[in-house]
Amino acid sequence: MCGITGYIGTRKAYPIVINGLRRLEYRGYDSAGVMVFDGSKMNLIKTKGKVSDLELIANKDPQKKEGNIAIGHTRWATHGVPNDVNSHPHFSQSGDLVIVHNGIIENYDTIKKELVSRGYKFHSDTDTEVLVNLIEEVKKQNNCKLGKAVQLALNQVTGAYAIAVFDRTKPNEIIVARLGSPIAIGVGKNNEEFFIASDASPFIEFTKDAIYLEDEEMAIIKLGRDIRVRKIHDDTIVNASTQELQLSLEQIEKGGYDHFMIKEIHEQPKAITDTYRGRMLADQGIIRMAGVDDNIEKFLNAERIIIVACGTSWHAGLVGEYLLEDMARIPVEVEYASEFRYRNPIITPKDIVIAISQSGETADTLAAIKLAKSKGAFVFGICNVVGSSIARETMAGAYTHAGPEIGVASTKAFTTQITVLTLISLKLAKAKGTLSNSAFHMYLQKMQLIPAKVKKLLQIDEKVKEIAKVYKDAKNCLYLGRGFNFPVALEGALKLKEISYIHAEGYPAAEMKHGPIALIDENMPIFVIATNKGHYEKVVSNIQEIKSRSGKIIAIVTEGDVTVKEIADHVIEIPETEEALTPLLTTIPFQLLSYHIAVMLGKNVDQPRNLAKSVTVE
Ligand code: AGP
Q1: What pLDDT score was predicted for residue 603?
Q2: How many Cβ atoms sit within 10 Å of the Cβ of residue 137?
């Protein structure tokens, strides 16, 4: 959490860095800062608030924006409240060194005490100020160059970091390093300029050549010279290869929409198609997926599949449990990565662990993967971000190909993760013979129709807006679903909570009677999924129970429904499909509803309070 960016070269550095920070704001947005080196002085501008607040301050003093070297930061606070002083960049005591940092230094307190005893004074509450002073102290003690000092200092810290460090006395280089937090370096023509960022989005209009540091690597970025990468812990020289970026500028802009979230909701027909393109050959009755094909024996012999993930990805994992067990008859457990990693789980080499993550950077999921690998399990990843840490850490996997998801609230990540899980389930079901040939072909045909159905469903936007108007002032909401749609109820509640700050809970519809029903009165909106093939009669009974306690029912039903229409206060129809595929449709109205409620309440939809897009700290 936190975005870092930097530039060293011949262009004006401030606009590049500030623009980069805007693109990285999804990573954290409680404070922002930039240091611009003007050739002799390091000018620091930083503030609590968003990058736009930083720009307002910077515009008052244009002289401070002049220079060809800059580093910047957008923060999600870990140590120290969000305020001007705790914002990055941080200077060392002498004022020669400056740092930006994404991550946590866990042993900062011990190091701080040691530095204080040596006369260092601290101005902020951050672990980052401790790190930059440690580097300064190590540099002084060892009388070494900045690169060596960074390396020696990092060998004394525990925790996670992506850092960029600059020394004003050696103004032709920036040192970067990573452990647990991502960092990409954009390489300009003839090494005349370099870009640094938490992901490649800040520099795609300048260069397509990028080097991604691996964990425990650091790089010395020096103008006019090839980048030198080495291991932090044992000094090994690393032959880092340059990758060609596939990202386009258009993909990371709003394209006429008011918010990224609504753009991404509307991108789902294409995103789902992109996910199965080249993998699902419906007419030939084939599903190809290299990560599964290459390891098919492991999948077929697996005694159990354990899915690990967090948040929305965990909800997709729950849908995966229903799909895999129903179709492929493999026992599945779905675990919160944060619990799994610390509860001494039983994992054997006969288990397959599937890790799901949009960003591919979620710290808990990454740790769960490492644990599973250490116990001998085969670990398969489902990620969106190409080249992300989780994509690299897993032994095989499948990308969702959803394109960049920038809105903090996950939308297209969810539906594309479910798409991958559906393909895997169908593929394994076919290989195991647990699904008849005709059922397999039927699913492929119906799956192919999903993008068009999502597109049609998106036309209900106006109707959802009307419903949003009625319920936007609710204080509490319930979301109910059964079977494949129970996880969608959880996801619907999460979407509402995270962007509108309305309290919402998801439950399996039948669980109502075991407690939550006590909450129902005439002020409680209850969103119920009642698709025609999914325990329909049972859900209708659950709806009746709510109605007789005066709850307000907003039901998601299948086109042509008659029964629920008579009871519910509002209905939203989804196109007909197989029940196993309905989560790809039922989730759409919930996404739209949360979006419209949040907009009507004047909330910051793409950057909800206290949140960040990728949670790279535990
Ligand atoms: C959901 O809208 C959130 N963005 C959050 O729950 C997210 O799904 C979770 O943090 C996991 O992120 P990941 O998929 O990038 O691992």
Answers
A1: 96
A2: 21
Same fold, 253-435 and 459-605: yes
The rounded Cα 373 to chain-centroid distance in angstroms is 22
Q: Is the CB of 337 inside a 6 Å radius of any atom of ligand 1?
A: no
CATH topology of domain 253-435: Rossmann fold (3.40.50)
Q: Is 285 left (phi over 0), alpha (psi -120 to 50) or beta?
A: left
Give the start-to-end residue ranges of the domains of the chain.
3-246, 253-435, 459-605
For a substitution probing ligand 1, which of 181, 410, 616, 617 has the most ligand atoms within 8 Å of its CB? 410
Cα separation of 485 and 315, whole Å? 10
Clarify whether 613 is annotated catalytic: yes
Pick the catalytic residue from 46, 64, 412, 613: 613
pLDDT one-digit tens code per residue, 244-266: 998 888 888 888 899 999 999 99
Least Cα distance to 322 among 585, 495, 579 occurs for 579
**Ligand 1 midpoint to CA 467 (Å):** 26
* pLDDT tens-digit map of 439-478: 999 999 999 999 999 999 999 999 999 999 999 999 999 9
Pick the CATH number of 459-605 from 3.40.50.10490, 3.40.50.300, 3.30.310.80, 3.30.2310.40: 3.40.50.10490
User: With a 6 A CB cut-off, is 359 part of the ligand 1 pocket?
Assistant: yes
Residue numbers of the chain with a pLDDT score lower than 70? none
Q: How far is the CA of 342 from the centre of ligand 1 (A)?
A: 20
Quickly count: other Cβ atoms within 10 Å of residue 104's Cβ: 23
pLDDT for res 617? 76
| Catalytic residue, candidates 2, 310, 383, 477 | 2
Ligand 1 center from residue 491 Cα (angstroms): 11
CA 586 / ligand 1 centre spacing (Å): 19
Kindly report the pTM of this predicted structure.
Answer: 0.84
CATH number of 3-246: 3.60.20.10
Q: What is the dihedral of CA 145, 149, 151, 153, to 10 degrees?
A: 180
Catalytic (active site) residue 2: yes
